Hints:
Elements: H1 2-23, H2 41-45, E1 53-59, H3 65-79, E2 82-88, H4 90-102, E3 110-114, H5 118-121, H6 130-133, H7 136-139, H8 143-148, E4 150-151, E5 154-155, E6 166-170, H9 171-174, H10 177-187, H11 197-206, E7 220-223, H12 232-244, E8 255-256, E9 261-262, H13 267-279, H14 292-300, E10 304-309, H15 312-317, E11 328-331, E12 336-341, E13 346-354, E14 358-359, E15 363-367, H16 374-384, H17 387-393, H18 411-418, H19 422-437, E16 442-443, H20 450-465, H21 471-489, H22 491-505
Parallel strand pairs: 1-2, 1-3, 7-10, 14-16
Antiparallel strand pairs: 3-15, 4-5, 6-10, 6-11, 8-9, 12-13
Amino acid sequence: MKRYLLASILSIVLVASSFGVQAQDYSKYGIGADIPGACSYKSIDAKDYSGRTLNIITHAVPVMGEPTALHAKQFEELTGAKVNVVHVPFGDLFQRIMIPFQTGQAAYDVLFYGSLWIGDLHAYLEPVPAAYQQVSGMKDVTVNYKGVATWGDTMVQYPVDGDRHYLKYRTDIFDNPKMKERYKKETGKTLKVPTTWEEYNEIAKYFSGWDWDGDKELNYGSAEVAKRDDLMFSAFISRVAPYAKHPDVKGGFFFDLETMKPLVNTPGWVRGLELFVAAQKSFPPGGNNFGLGDEIFSFGGGQTLMSYSWDDAFIQAMQSGSRIRNKVAAAPLPGALEVWNRKTGKWDKFKTPNLAPYITWGWTSAVSKLSTNKDMAFDYLCFFSNEANTAHDLQIGRFGVNPFRKAHFDAKFWIEKLGWEEKIAKTYVKTLSDMDLSKNRVFDLRVPGVGQFMSSLAAGVSKALAGQETPQKALDGVAEEWRQIVDRIGKEKVREAYKNVVALEDNLR
């Protein structure tokens, strides 16, 4: 009898247990439905990290900081672990990560930071184990962002985001027959999406200072990140790239890899700065001091005709309730019909614009070599970026998670999940996905001391924008400072790191 009762109880427990697993609903986490895989909700739920603590450092809320905290809380509930998340403003983030490494302290297990810091951090990062490189989400990461995560032949960063610069523009103006007619009549030219930076400046200037969208407020041609200490260096590189990145000249965009001579004051760079200075005529009031947030809300709020930088301004414009929702589109960054050839010392003319997509820095993540919780740390990152979580995070602009997998370039996702019009969604996914196909890309510098190099560049460009120095003189000053920085850090040390950038740009891996 006892055996029968015991067998019956065990049978009930097994059935109930089986039923519970089958009926487990993870939709309470806001993901809609779990997506099967090595790091799915179900898979992570099967882990038991009770009694263990995971320490994470990340950016301040909301950009990257908010999804870090959200998925940390979920990870706690699923695994029983205790997860501590430290949020740090961007200006302090590098030092807060680097100082513990330099003093040998295992302060954090998981790190979220700007991917361009890999040149300084790579020696302190645990390589991503082969098993995690084989999960479905990782195998779907595009070639550009696998490259961003790799140092030499080793993946040391865990991809969680994809960033690039591209053009955003108002379709209700560019596709408007009356605007086309007016532009033709007054300029003698056809109004079309600009394919060179000269065209961009011309169109932006024409559409500045008058109410072209009928909202009874003045509109302007261009919103750009021009504030010295607010990522302006990235905006400048976008403008320089097609004039200085010659498709047939290899061996460096920022430096000549062979000599490590800075190239920032060569004619292609100077041309880009001349056009950046001229573009200020088309900025909104105060636009020459716009930071990234200002650019987002200027274009995303309908004040300006065009902008370029990260995804944020486009997503802002396409949010539910936006007055310009489904009135914008994406396109490649403008190019150049003349490109400086540093090998011949001459300008080469192109029949079609030379395009040089800028794969600018974005958020990344990694596990510290000093961590004693590497298994849990990699599980967290794998969970953070699983297919269900990423599909959720891509829909929230303030999270700072942008397309980095091939699956993200399916227009259906943006149409069905966010309600974008088909035509607009297609311009977006095509623009972004085509960057992976380019053989003439520009990546961030990614060398030791990159903060010093970019601070110097921003300071020099600011002098030209303010009219304090000519573009040539300003960049001559930057080049001299760069030579001094290279000498301080060590020429061979910088060159060895720069080889990794050149390998990406010259398609050597």
